[in-house]
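Help! Submission page says 'invalid entity' but I think these are all valid:
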Amino acid sequence: MAEAHPVGFQWVMEAKARGATVIHVDPRFSRTSAMADLHVPIRAGSDIAFLGGIINHVLTEEKYFRDYVLAYTNASTIISEDFADTEDLGGVFSGLDRDHRTYDFDAWRYQAGDVGAAAGRRDRPGSGKGGQNGNGQNGDGQNGDGRRRRVRAAARGEAHGSGGAAAHPSPDTDETLQHPRCVFQILKRHFSRYTPEMVEQICGISPENFRRVYEALTSNSGRDRTTALVYSVGWTQHTVGVQYIRTGAILQTLLGNMGRPGGGILALRGHASIQGSTDIPTLFDLLPGYLPMPHVHGNEDLDTYADAESMDNGFWANVRSYMVSLLKAWWGPAATAENDFCFDYLPRLTGSHGTYETVLAQIAGDCSGYFLLGENPAVGSANGRMQRLGMSKLDWLVVRDFSLIESATWWKDGPEIETGEMRTEDIGTEVFFLPAAAHTEKSGSFTNTQRMLQWHHEAVEPAGDARSDLWFAYHLGRIIREKLAAQSGSVPGSSSPAAGEHPDADEMNRPILDLTWDYPLRGPLREPDAEAVLAEVNGWDGDGKPVSSYTQLKDDGSTASGCWIYCGVYADGVNQAARRKPGGEQNWVANEWGWAWPANRRVLYNRASADPEGKPWSDRKALVWWDPEQGKWAGHDIADFIANRPPSYRPPDGAKGVAAISGTDAFIMQADGKAWLFAPAGLADGPMPAHYEPQESPVQNLLYPKQEHNPVRETLRHPGTPYQPSGDEPGSEVFPYVATTYRLTEHHTAGGMSRWLPYLSELQPEFFCEVSPELAAERGLEHMGWATIISARSAIEARVMVTQRMPSLTVQGKRLHQIGLPYHWGRNGLTTGDAANELAHFSLDPNVHIQEVKALAVDIQPGRRPRGPALLDLIRSYHERAGITDETGTEV
Amino acid sequence: MSSTERPGLTGGADPAERAGWGEHPPRMGFFTDTSVCIGCKACEVACKEWNTVPEDGLELTGMSFDNTIGLSASTWRHVAFIEQQAPVGVPALPAVPGQAAGIRGGLSGPAVPGPDGVDGAMRWLMSSDVCKHCTEAGCLDVCPTGALMRTEFGTVVVQDDVCNGCGYCVPACPFGVIGRRADDGGAHKCTLCYDRLGVGMEPACAKACPTDSIQFGPLDELRERARVRVNDLVEAGHPEAQLYLEGADNGIGGAGAFFLLLDEPEVYGLPPDPVVPTRSLPRMWKHAGLAAAGVGAMVLTAFLGSRTDVR
Amino acid sequence: MGVRTWIEGWPVYRQLTGPDKLGLGAAAKSGATSRRQPRVAEADNVVKSVCPYCAVGCGQNVYVQDGKVTQIEGDPDSPVSRGRLCPKGSASLQLTTGDARQYQVLYRRPNGTDWEKLGLDQAMDMIADRVLAARRKGWQWEVDGQRTRRTLGFASLGGATLDNEENYLFKKLFTALGAVQIENQARI
């Protein structure tokens, strides 16, 4: 955190000054470690074993916060008899379809007296026009059903950014926590082999360090104290990344640290509005506000979509209102009840269309055009060579950035030109480079890592051809609409064109011609008014007045909102994101600075900071509480609850939607109102986390010897991104070291905003790798000499930094060396070097399709890498030594 | 006025007063608490942005994360990084085991005791260095042109329009702070953001510092704060914590920028006992100074007069 | 801290330390030094902004003089950052006004060996044509007999560094064009 989020780290330092204990768990000793009370070096790729060991300790030693666990979690919920654990099935859960590499969630569902209600509505395919069987059962092996499950797995992982997946709202429970199939007992059995000895063997963490960690955690959790977990992409960039975070969530839930001040799990995100680009997603599987993109399976019309995506209970019951309001925001008057509010205008998914699949589609020739909007995949994405191969097959490429990044110039100076794999004259891709405006040259909002929107105001106009992306998007749309309208002889927005250039053209073009696209333009550059866009995102009611809450949204077409969770950001016609009441003039929550979704609440699920009766668990840790005199929730923060719902409220029988949320359902976006220690749905790879080795690991999976990897990880296949043998497979010894990538304070991601700046470049002027003195001795590496790091994909060279900060570990009785690779470099800019991501493969987390760059198996040799075709010879020789085939590494 | 500072004839060792500033603000300075420095180098960049100091070379040094090397004409803040394997109060680490031949390179042979898992095995010290704005400033003493000036805040600045690039000041600094820049030939160093101070703003480095490792303020207040801080650290089990240049009992008569260190100064590359080289010069220079004409000479005389008396 | 005096405090302080009261000390002070004002004091206006690097969301004050950004500093009012910035945030002035910025549209024709200059309007027109062509090339009304109404013809990557409003327009436009391969750094 000190390394990549230094200014945020001031609050950790402040907590430390007040007596907080700071523990840093990381393969390397970083600037964060330097400030920590304890640094715990860990083998990259083993965090679930480590956290699972703490969970085991908490459960067996009864260190959990029992009152909290009973009141707010699903610990007492009884799970269906169909469920079988990894302990029973050799490392996999019940419901695994090996042929399609998916799990069926039905095998993990809650047991409920009214079994007919099954697993809730969400994720259940509809029974609409498609006529599909809507009740996908365990692995029947039919093609249609298998594809349906793949589609579901592909596109469901992220659809819970604003709430959980579906589950039965009132399952059977055992408040004594003794039932053998209650979540508590299942959890206890599941983690029982995650012992300190296992942690030592798998993670390389000494029992003494491990003890210090769990003692610090448990002694600083409970009624009077809280502990926060902070993570970044060190947890996400794995083939089991989401489950890393789930493990942290289970631990924090058991300790009673969720929804409470000083608690929680804090994701430190790395780009100014990466949270915003998930909320208002430029992501294939989502529509604004975490509404899933519709799929071909079953979700054929608005009714079946709303039925399948909504839940019986809570705010997700109103999916139809959110969706209709979005459709009204996009298609305005053209969206009517008669035409399903233009629901059919939305394109449909047939599987994963993530960025790595897109690269394969480019190479295959299916995708022929590409916009890069402030991204540099040639450096920042896994396997740069594949990225450039994809771009070399395009008809056209548009790059919008500040400078000529590697993704703009690969056709003349990329690594493949050097190796002879590509010749500039043979590359047919037409490339447009458009200079982008800086944040000082445009107005708009960023959503920061706390879900807080902050407005930045234009200070000056961009110079030359530089333009904002708002300008680019708007005017590109305007020109396209004008061209299509001219073809069809109609005016954009007025629909019903005459004959077009293609039999289907009119129908194809209606969504773009009917689109609401009339934003006010300002100044000589004709810059769209960003506040007008924000107003549309916020939405308006039937009278055209800005809505102040998503509870105002209707499903009859009378309201519009471009992103339901952002409702309120333009309440009263005021840009709430631009609020800047000084922090010093507010309480410590500072609700009047910017605006956070949902409803300007700063701590999610903060109802849990009070006990079931509505009183803070302790005075020290008060955040919100029930005020019986005023009949509403009060506190330092805005309660993340229904404002006037008393703790004593119990829903009447048959209650649906918001009315079904009880006064103690602190986790209001969950189908059952509970924090999930066991996830009966929503995760592609298991209801509980299990330790799996990375796609490529030098060691065997000690916990599940029969199951080396996450069985449902997504392994994309292409000759350009082969996989290596792993664990005890022959050939794995060719890649004996663990490499992990990371950031440095002085640079930013793929370098586009740092490697071109003299003041930052001089601070870290060259790509280097960090190795321990032991590894240096083993491989003959010299401090500040050169090393070549080799994987099955590529070989890169780096200057060598020999340092004790990259400690070697003892894992399964043997010394294990790790190699640190800051990934900022590429061949352009003031400071240049090979890109670490060249080494990475295309094996992805099955929930969110994120690549595994935090734990790779590599070799390292002294000296510089070969130039030209000799580089390819080197990689080929490693393939031969390791016996790599097309099938290597692709097993379940 | 700190009690540790030596009193002078003309109302104490307040350097601004001795430099002829009548009514003037309190002496301002930096207290750099290295125990909370996270080595982010924001100070280096904020300084350069504000003062338009040019880039100072793209060289990977291998000195941990320090690629700035040291203070110079084009580096007015410099963050040192010191990797320690056996810090004070912690048992020395076992030796790094040598290479053990194994079947699988990365997992070579049986486990041997190593640095992992040893509490406190590693310490990474970081410290942002800066011009000390000495009470007895060698650079100021030797400047023949009046380019170097003591400001009303007690700080020492180079005036670019006066400096002729003679370079006398460079060897006169016991810390190696000031240097000449190749492009303009002039001498440059930290001004403690003199221009910002003039309008009540704090220096750019102190403002940016994420953890308040760099604190700016009236020197008296900073010294008070520093003494509390160092006592707290010693009591908390860091006997090695010490203040560097906090008092006046050193060879530069006290500093406008002082430090809390977690090890001996030389570990950070700081001279343990800096002495201003002009300490023995004042009497010799007094006569030369009198020969100089103009207002500048009057200031110089007053300055040296007080210093002579101290001796 | 007390010394972190805000802009409103300047005149008082200026008066306190003004030239009339400098006395003897002024003697060594050169004309240029005396005239020197910090550029923030001369700014025409201060614009409230947010750091464009990571997601902490540090407040920035952008100083503008004569239509140019002259300084970017932390905003002390921000409850997130309290006026502080990291090295990257501190380099925002160089990022936004430095020599590395490109201000010219560049074009590489198919099989071309170097960049050529291109007018912005012409580039926009050409890109619009190419989007429509790629869209049609990759159009799919149906897949396996089920309606998809989409195109796989073009894709986009980027958004995490953009404003919400920009992402909103891209998502809206590209989705209406039938594209589904719309991605950003959040996937990476």
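Support: the input was valid. A stray whitespace character was the problem, and the output above is from the cleaned input. The mean pLDDT of chain A is 93.
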